[in-house]
Amino acid sequence: MLMAGIRLGCKHGHFMLLFLCIPRTPVAIGVVLPGASQGCWAGGYTYQRCCVGRERDCFPSEFGNRFDETTCCSAMVEAMGALEELGLPLASRAPSPAIGRCVEESLSHAEESLARNSFLSTLRCIASLQSVDVVLDAFLGGGFSLAAVAQGLDVPKSRRRPPSVFSFEKHKYLVDEALAPAGPVGDAWPTTVANLTVPDTEPSSNLVTLKEQLHSYQLSVIQAKSRAVHEDQRPEILIGHGLPYNLASLSGYQWNALDILCQHHAPVDLVVMDAEAALSQEWLIIETICMPRLVALFGVNIHGASSWIKNRLEMLNTWQLEAKGVVKLGSKPWKAMAEVRRLRAWALFSNLAADPP
Ligand SMILES: *[C@@H]1O[C@H](CO)[C@@H](O)[C@H](O)[C@H]1NC(C)=O
Prior knowledge:
The protein is an alpha/beta fold and about 350 residues long. Helix content is about 30%, strand content about 15%. Strands 5-6-4-3-7-8-10-9 form an 8-stranded mixed beta sheet, with helices on both faces. Strand 5 (about 190-195), helix 9 and strand 6 (about 235-240) form a beta-alpha-beta unit. Helix 5 (about 95-110) packs across helix 6, helix 9 packs parallel to helix 10 and helix 10 (about 255-265) runs parallel beside helix 11 (about 280-290). The longest helix is centred in the middle third of the chain and has 23 residues, at about 205-225. The chain is globular and about 65 Å long. The structure holds 2-acetamido-2-deoxy-beta-D-glucopyranose (NAG). 2-acetamido-2-deoxy-beta-D-glucopyranose binds near residues 197, 198 and 209.
């Protein structure tokens, strides 16, 4: 009786899992269905039952690693089999007037404390555009870019999807500082922190722990897109504490949080990359599975950050540079060689394969 009552609670095309209504179409349009070409979905096994519903008999041990979450639930494994060589160059298009207005506006407010730099104020403005609902701020760091996009999303506007900001952060103290009452994000928006950290000890049990954490992360990711959509909706924030892509296995690709996030929320309207690490794997997953419509890169002039991603987007024929700017960290030259890192350039690209913003 209870079950029947619960089932009535979900609208058509949804099913109930742990008291959540989950849409029956698991993967966004344009993304491959994980596991399809790997032979996972035969004999009644489905993505829905095995990757979302976690039915116990899905990955029987007699098959070893032939069928598991990595093979059957990762969008990247499926997509890598279908990657194509670059096609014909896509025709460039006129620069987006909406983005142009955001850049102009941000320069005129550059002295305000909140818009302390042209990158953050441009981000805030872009997040307020009607075509932006879902943002991945790839690394939380100090939390300033996340706060900027959350503020932008937090304006009443007609929406296509529930406003959501996703982020990852390896260091717990940075998460705590960003979310502290006086921190840049504070408690202004409903925020979930998902634990994606496995202890260093006991390597064999770590894989089980990691899978548990990823399944639980996936539920939060699905829940974020299952909310009803309305105009004056507040953005919700989901921060994965830990690594977006787990490097524990050297033998190849492994089911990971970034793949999960991307397969459920593609196309992501805006991806912000501000990191000092190389991030090759992470970027390839974002590019292939998240299919971002806009990409904002910070620190494109300094070694070790996202400069190589800028070069990659300029080389590929599907991206267009929409805006760029410079943020000064300090108004006077830094002492000696550190000066090379004082000015930080940023660049904003739009995906020519997606609708213009
Ligand atoms: C995250 O999960 C791991 C493994 O269960 C646990 O050891 C650790 O204490 C958790 N961390 C936090 C911050 O809850």
